[in-house]
Specification:
single chain; three-stranded parallel β-sheet; alpha/beta
Length: 155
């Protein structure tokens, strides 16, 4: 995806702007790896940075190290630009706790759900909406329209 940005950034920018006008929000996947460029962030209408799973896999609550530093830096950058942050590849409760400690409140990964067919996802979203409406939803997860799973933050 980032390679396409390098090939024709003006065309991509115009396309993303039209999509945003139609209500579709762009997410920059695997941020921090590959061809990620900071210049995309101010030139393109990006809504969300997705922290690559390679930075999530070694996290633990109270942890230190390069992964913690990278996650903090991505979060700070996104926050200063008004972008959302989603962590990818969350597989353990320890990773989830570490991300929450770092202020990352949106994530996706096998801890929350395995990949599923579209119909199954629709059924899950409908069930979540019914649970939310009945105010009996579990306190450790909920879904958003983007099918991202929150990591236990409820208002």
């Amino acid at each position: 995806t980032e390679g396409a940005l390098l090939e024709n950034p003006d065309h991509i920018r115009r396309t993303l702007e039209r999509l945003r006008e139609a209500g579709v929000l762009a997410q920059l996947d695997d941020f921090g790896t590959g061809y990620s460029s900071l210049s995309y962030l101010h030139r393109l209408p990006i809504h969300t940075l997705k922290i690559d799973r390679s930075f999530v896999q070694d996290l633990a609550p109270g942890g230190v190290g390069s992964s913690v530093a990278v996650v903090r830096a991505i979060k700070a950058l996104a926050q200063s630009m008004g972008l959302e942050v989603i962590a990818e590849g969350i597989e353990t409760e320890l990773q989830r706790e570490a991300l929450l400690d770092l202020g990352v409140t949106l994530g996706q990964g096998f801890l929350f759900a395995r990949p599923m067919p579209g119909e199954a996802m629709r059924d899950r979203l409908l069930l979540d909406q019914r649970l939310d409406a009945a105010e009996t939803a579990p306190s450790d997860w909920s879904t958003t329209m983007a099918a991202q799973l929150e990591m236990g933050i409820h208002g």
